[in-house]
Amino acid sequence: MKAKEYLHQAYRLDKRIQSNIEEMERLRELSTSVSSPSWGERIQTQRHTDALFVRYLERIEELQIKINDEVDHLVALKAEIRDVINKVTDIDERMVLRYRYVHNFTWEQIGDELNADKSTIRRWHGNALNHVVVPENPIVIQMLNSNEHF
């Protein structure tokens, strides 16, 4: 695994967690809303005996467990990434990596923090990636379900 791919895992996992939280909020809204009856013809091969809100609540519970597991993975991954970044000897390179991969700053935000222009930040970033040593057995975040895409 290349350094950039390894460091970028936390960002992708964080985005996946945020997406799951948004989905859970939509399910919460649906679980408390009143659905109107359908007066049209309905053909149903199986009859659901649970109320619709019960199914939403079950899905919310499943998502909450998944989110908690992903947050635990994110915390462990960020701790490992911080350790890897702290081994980079150049302070500017280390700060660029920290702002980019731990705090998810944009290039412009990093430039503002370090009082450097975008090209300098990108140069430091490129040099820093060459100095990152990916652990032999890194924490690698896999998709929890094969049908999830991110």
From TrEMBL:
Source domain of life: Bacteria
Coiled-coil region list: none
A Gene Ontology term for the protein's cellular component: DNA-directed RNA polymerase complex
Pfam families, per database record: DUF1492
Keyword terms, alphabetized: DNA-directed RNA polymerase, Transcription
Gene3D superfamilies recorded: 1.20.140.160
InterPro entries with a match to the protein in the record: DUF1492, RNA_pol_sigma_r3/r4-like
Name of the protein in its database record: DNA-directed RNA polymerase specialized sigma subunit
Species assigned in the record: Anaerosolibacter carboniphilus
